[in-house]
């Protein structure tokens, strides 16, 4: 009863918009030789880059993640749990479904490679099935740092995200004023700093530092928008909050100062909307819908590009899909049935995956590390291997160059096993959750 429904809503809303955004910008074309291509909408129709201002909602996911993780860590710590046990529990909830998804996709890649599927096609499909993976290694690393980050929060409060933001903004400007190669290497730290700001603000929100009146949220919303406008108007950064091929600067790879400003603005708006949305969530039907999306959010996030492949095979390879000019009015009108069909296919995929999800949730409960885990070096090694493998898949896809990624596959499998073996003695860590609760928390 003490659960904040608005936090669940933010996670469900973020996942829903990620899925919808990926579907919206994914356009297919059937070539004269019968092959299917996927032109990049944001590069082909430049005005669509403005749409990313509404669809780039990952700051909300990190905000909600920080809010939930802060409470989870406090409960585990007060119950005598250790860092190794808590990190192992949280990591396992993400790694089990991710490893299952990756294993099935990699099996398909291996079979397709063996029967002689065109390597370029296989590489494109492998990239499409891994395009959402960038989020996972970042979130796993920040999760592993949660006990340290929360300790800093208890000592310095809002000064922590402020300091992280100042450093992240400075690092983000290196790509503009510094050597591009140096900036690219140093800029990777912004994956932790920029998204870490939203995560740290989740701690502050949970502990009431952001909800004392409307002054702070209004300042964040207005200040973030003003700074963002300055950085993308007269400033050097593009408006797109998603990577666009051919642009010299990017707001996401790594996260830029403009992305940081937009994240702060988005958090401010979310805080301002919280009272009204909470009143809506008091309704049984609205809350039931949020719980339905939240309970299946991991499956939605991992599997949402599979319907694109199904529709491509059924309608584009066969030539059944009409093909108005790419980005034309007719093309946009056809986005409506495109989204409807993809939604129906995804609903079927999620329904078919329910037995697998329940099995994974049950397995997660059985493998939960005990609160007595202290020297969890295998778990940390496994976490490192998993982060490396997921980062590789995020950057290269499941079939880079049309070949099977042997070592990343081994790394993810071995890493997941090492994290799962982090059992230890003692209690069950943070409470004794049912499989349903484990599934919801993983979401």
From TrEMBL:
<feature type="domain" description="Acyltransferase 3">
    <location>
        <begin position="5"/>
        <end position="350"/>
    </location>
</feature>
<feature type="transmembrane region" description="Helical">
    <location>
        <begin position="129"/>
        <end position="149"/>
    </location>
</feature>
<dbReference type="InterPro" id="IPR002656">
    <property type="entry name" value="Acyl_transf_3_dom"/>
</dbReference>
<protein>
    <submittedName>
        <fullName>Acyltransferase</fullName>
    </submittedName>
</protein>
<feature type="transmembrane region" description="Helical">
    <location>
        <begin position="375"/>
        <end position="394"/>
    </location>
</feature>
<dbReference type="Pfam" id="PF01757">
    <property type="entry name" value="Acyl_transf_3"/>
</dbReference>
<keyword id="KW-0808">Transferase</keyword>
<feature type="transmembrane region" description="Helical">
    <location>
        <begin position="12"/>
        <end position="30"/>
    </location>
</feature>
<keyword id="KW-1133">Transmembrane helix</keyword>
<feature type="transmembrane region" description="Helical">
    <location>
        <begin position="329"/>
        <end position="354"/>
    </location>
</feature>
<keyword id="KW-0012">Acyltransferase</keyword>
<feature type="transmembrane region" description="Helical">
    <location>
        <begin position="400"/>
        <end position="421"/>
    </location>
</feature>
<keyword id="KW-0472">Membrane</keyword>
<feature type="transmembrane region" description="Helical">
    <location>
        <begin position="156"/>
        <end position="176"/>
    </location>
</feature>
<feature type="transmembrane region" description="Helical">
    <location>
        <begin position="215"/>
        <end position="237"/>
    </location>
</feature>
<feature type="transmembrane region" description="Helical">
    <location>
        <begin position="298"/>
        <end position="317"/>
    </location>
</feature>
<feature type="transmembrane region" description="Helical">
    <location>
        <begin position="50"/>
        <end position="74"/>
    </location>
</feature>
<feature type="transmembrane region" description="Helical">
    <location>
        <begin position="257"/>
        <end position="277"/>
    </location>
</feature>
<keyword id="KW-0812">Transmembrane</keyword>
<feature type="transmembrane region" description="Helical">
    <location>
        <begin position="94"/>
        <end position="117"/>
    </location>
</feature>
<dbReference type="GO" id="GO:0016746">
    <property type="term" value="F:acyltransferase activity"/>
</dbReference>
<feature type="transmembrane region" description="Helical">
    <location>
        <begin position="182"/>
        <end position="203"/>
    </location>
</feature>
